[in-house]
TrEMBL record:
It comes from Peribacillus asahii. The keyword Transcription applies. GO terms for molecular function: DNA binding. Keywords: DNA-binding, Repressor, Transcription, Transcription regulation. This is TetR/AcrR family transcriptional regulator.
C-alpha cells in the first residue's frame, strides 16, 4: 500500500475512533464515519469492505498504537522502577485521550463475546501488554529491586490494575481524579513488586 493510501486509511480510522467515542458502537454508520473523515461514503467503501471491517481495523490500529507508545516510554528508562513509572504514566496519558480510548475500548469489549476477530485482536493486545510487564519485572528481579514474584502472574496483575483503575476513573467522570488514580496505581504496583506490604505486616 502506498503512502497516500495508508494516510487515507488512517484518516478514516481516526474518524471512526472519534465517531464511536461520541456516538457508541451500534449508532455509528458507514456514512457517519465518512462524514467524520470528511470524505464520501464511496471513499470509505473503497478502503474497507463494510462497517465491521472498519471496526476490526480500528481495534487493531488503536491497540497497536497504545502498545507502541507504552513500549517506547519504558524503552527510554534504564531501571525497573523507572520503567514501571514510565509504563503507568504512559497508560495514564491524559484525561482526554484516556476517556476517548476507554469509551471506544469498552464498546469493543461488549462486542467481543460475539466476534471472534475482536477477541483475537484483544488477545494480541493483552499479550503485548503482558510482554511489557514481563520485561519490567525480569529487569527488577535481576537488579534485586523487585521481589521474587511469579513473572506471568505479576504481568497480568500490572495490566489488570492499570485498566481497572482507568475504568473506575472513567466512571467517576472527574478529570481531577486522574492524577490520584495514576499515582495510586503506581504506588500499589510498586508495593506489590517490592513486597513492601508483606514486609510491613511482619
Amino acid at each position: 500500500m502506498n503512502n497516500k493510501a495508508e494516510k487515507r486509511r488512517e484518516q478514516i480510522l481516526r474518524a471512526a475512533f472519534q465517531a464511536v467515542s461520541e456516538k457508541g458502537f451500534h449508532s455509528v454508520t458507514l456514512q457517519d464515519i465518512a462524514d467524520y473523515a470528511d470524505v464520501s461514503k464511496g471513499v470509505t467503501s473503497y478502503y474497507f469492505q463494510n462497517k465491521e471491517d472498519v471496526f476490526r481495523h480500528l481495534l487493531e490500529w488503536v491497540t497497536e498504537k497504545i502498545y507502541k507508545n507504552e513500549h517506547a516510554a519504558i524503552s527510554k528508562e534504564h531501571t525497573a522502577p523507572d520503567k514501571l513509572r514510565a509504563y503507568v504514566h504512559a497508560a495514564f496519558a491524559n484525561p482526554s485521550d484516556n476517556r476517548k480510548f476507554y469509551r471506544v475500548y469498552l464498546e469493543f469489549l461488549a462486542q467481543a463475546n460475539h466476534n471472534e476477530q475482536f477477541r483475537d485482536t484483544n488477545d494480541r493486545f493483552y499479550e503485548n501488554c503482558w510482554s511489557i510487564g514481563r520485561e519490567i519485572i525480569q529487569l527488577g528481579q535481576k537488579e534485586g529491586t523487585f521481589a521474587n514474584v511469579d513473572i506471568d502472574k505479576a504481568s497480568y496483575t500490572i495490566r489488570a490494575l492499570i485498566d481497572g483503575s482507568l475504568i473506575q476513573w472513567l466512571m467517576q467522570n472527574n478529570d481531577q481524579l486522574h492524577t490520584f488514580y495514576r499515582d495510586n496505581c503506581l504506588e500499589t504496583l510498586s508495593n506489590y513488586l517490592t513486597n513492601k506490604n508483606n514486609q510491613n505486616s511482619n
